[in-house]
Amino acid sequence: MNSPTRNTQIQLSRQRDGMPDLDDFEVHVVPTPEIADGEFLVRTIYLSLDPYIRKAMRGDHPGHAKLAPGEVIYGRAVCRIVRSRHADYKQGDYLVAETGWQNFAALTPKKVVQRIDPTLGPLSTALGVLGMPGLTAWGSVAHIAQPNVGDTFVVSAAAGPVGGTAGQLAKQAGARVVGIAGGKEKCDLVTRTYGFDACIDYKKSGWQDALAAACPGGIDIYHDNVGASLLNDLVKFFNLYARVVLCGRPADYHSGDFEGLSIGPIIGKRAVVRGMVVYDYEHDLARYQRVAAQLMREGKLRFKEDRVEGVESTPAHFLKLMRGENIGKAIVSVGPEKG
Amino acid sequence: MNSPTRNTQIQLSRQRDGMPDLDDFEVHVVPTPEIADGEFLVRTIYLSLDPYIRKAMRGDHPGHAKLAPGEVIYGRAVCRIVRSRHADYKQGDYLVAETGWQNFAALTPKKVVQRIDPTLGPLSTALGVLGMPGLTAWGSVAHIAQPNVGDTFVVSAAAGPVGGTAGQLAKQAGARVVGIAGGKEKCDLVTRTYGFDACIDYKKSGWQDALAAACPGGIDIYHDNVGASLLNDLVKFFNLYARVVLCGRPADYHSGDFEGLSIGPIIGKRAVVRGMVVYDYEHDLARYQRVAAQLMREGKLRFKEDRVEGVESTPAHFLKLMRGENIGKAIVSVGPEKG
């Protein structure tokens, strides 16, 4: 079915606001593209599903035009070059690249996010702990928040690859680390696998009391992965001069509406609120990968993937991510690692 | 009428939300208070009117309990000790103290905000450019924002003592300084007296285009004196990594409702948003006053007062401040500087 002459792709069937559903996507089988001079053909191995894709589909994410019906859905993947007409990109090279949701893509270097050193860790981690989510955590923890021994570091969406990695990095820096996640299964992952000191289930009543109990010295750093609504709830637990890293707001990705941040309490706490964008830290990716790979070998940096098989499974797996039901980094296993 | 045995005071007549009116206040003449051991009697000279008083009346400002009808309205003033039973506070000493809106007050040292060195500048400036408003500007500019040569520094409520001083300090640091104020008279004060490079009248249509034209290199620093609503309008003019000092939100002082800060654009600009509270910088007041007094002598730091005479005039002058109609620091001249 995934023979080199046939390419299965997921196209947008209709453009609309709000939470997407399966009818927004259509599976099409098309010929595998030819490549021109300067291009190379890649085969998708692991497709990454990420909250930003929802915004990108609507044209509301840097570098992504609004999709028209019939266009392939945006997405990054671990892929392998199977044929090349570009001197710097050789058959057999592993890349993270903007393949979209399909088996094969003809690419130019512009679509390459990074090259992969397959000795650093499992290939799929180039999409998670060793890729952009991990680098996002690194930018937040190592470049911005810089937790110290004794700081209490709180992170939302703690079961995900950004939050989970951020908390583990902060833990290595000596901080007390408390996660916030939705549901017992995610909270267990955060404490048992990632080794956080505590994880608060925000879907349980009384979660704010539980958070206060888990942060007896108050919150010094908050890494926000969800948006202003939760942040407004947390400010009362902040210590003076607390630092906040704003990292994304998937709660707002479905539409342009969102709750704003109440600035009165921010003033009262003299809090420092910073926006961050991972692209600013791409220059530091190699250093981060060396640090992270070493921590992984020592068992101090763990990750969790939520995988399905086959490109046709992508829309349903994406909707699961949109509903927050994935446990760990959402990945579609599309093709073989070799061959 | 202001004889030492009779004390005119302004009391709260009723406690309610929303914009106050004259009926919320009542003038009462009561005996001048006796002083006990450890107390001293002060005579109010210049009463300071400030936006925070509205919040303090409602019990929504640190250290101020909600006022009950019959209680004297909160307020700070330049005052002189006329009788003392405290060894450290001598007759004739000048203070800024929490007198409330009245001619005489029996105080303990707890109510003293600062002592005044009358050689530094005109006595009334202890309430403005040499007092808490000036120190607020100093905390923002010298401690937090630290503008550099070539930075564009934008400040709202630019005609007021905080904004006007902040802009003049930033100008001394080499920044291009652009004010935002309401109405031609305020804007003229900001450019002609304070010497800002430009001032934008936010009450005129097209003010955003005028601001963009006044900031051809984008905004590097924004000192916010008004709240999230204006800030949300300004983020699109920010340069990457712009710094914001949140300093107060008088637009929200009348009630608990307010517009929130949209965090998506803050993330996109990688902006750094910090809350500040002037009380954190009281340890630096003497140093600031030396710097500011020298700048004033050199004609590089100017101020403007909006004065009325007599404690009975206080409510109307306060309402003028609440409506934003004052031009410069709002002061009530209550008693003589000497005698």
What would your notes on this structure say?
The structure is a homodimer of 339-residue chains. With 339 residues, chain A is an alpha/beta fold. Chain A has 2 domains: 6-128 and 304-333, Medium-chain alcohol dehydrogenases, catalytic domain (Quinone Oxidoreductase, Chain A, domain 1, Alpha-Beta Complex), CATH 3.90.180; 132-282 and 289-296, NAD(P)-binding Rossmann-like Domain (Rossmann fold, 3-Layer(aba) Sandwich). The first copy, chain A, is built from 9 helices and 15 strands. Chain A has helices spanning 52-57, 132-145, 161-172, 184-193, 207-214, 228-234, 263-268, 285-297, 314-322, and strands at 6-12, 25-31, 40-48, 77-84, 94-97, 104-107, 112-115, 152-156, 176-181, 198-201, 219-224, 238-246, 272-275, 305-309, 329-333. In chain A, strands 3, 4, 5, 6, 7, 14 and 15 form a 7-stranded mixed sheet that branches. In chain A, helix 2 packs across helix 3 (161-172). At the A-B interface, helix 6, helix 7 and strand 13 of A face helix 6, helix 7 and strand 13 of B.
Find the structural class of chain A using helix and strand composition.
Answer: alpha/beta
CATH topology descriptor of the largest domain in chain A: Rossmann fold
Biggest beta-sheet profile of chain A: 7 strands, mixed
What is the count of β-strands of chain A? 15
The CATH C-level class name of the largest domain in chain A: Alpha Beta
- The CATH superfamily of the largest domain in chain A is identified as NAD(P)-binding Rossmann-like Domain
Multimer state? homodimer
What's the number of structural domains of chain A? 2
Cα radius of gyration of chain A in angstroms: 20 Å
Low confidence ranges of chain A: 251-257
First-residue to last-residue Cα separation of chain A: 15 Å
Mean pLDDT level of chain A: 94
Strand content of chain A: 25-35%
Helix content of chain A: 25-40%
| Annotation field: number of helices of chain A | 9
Shape of chain A: globular
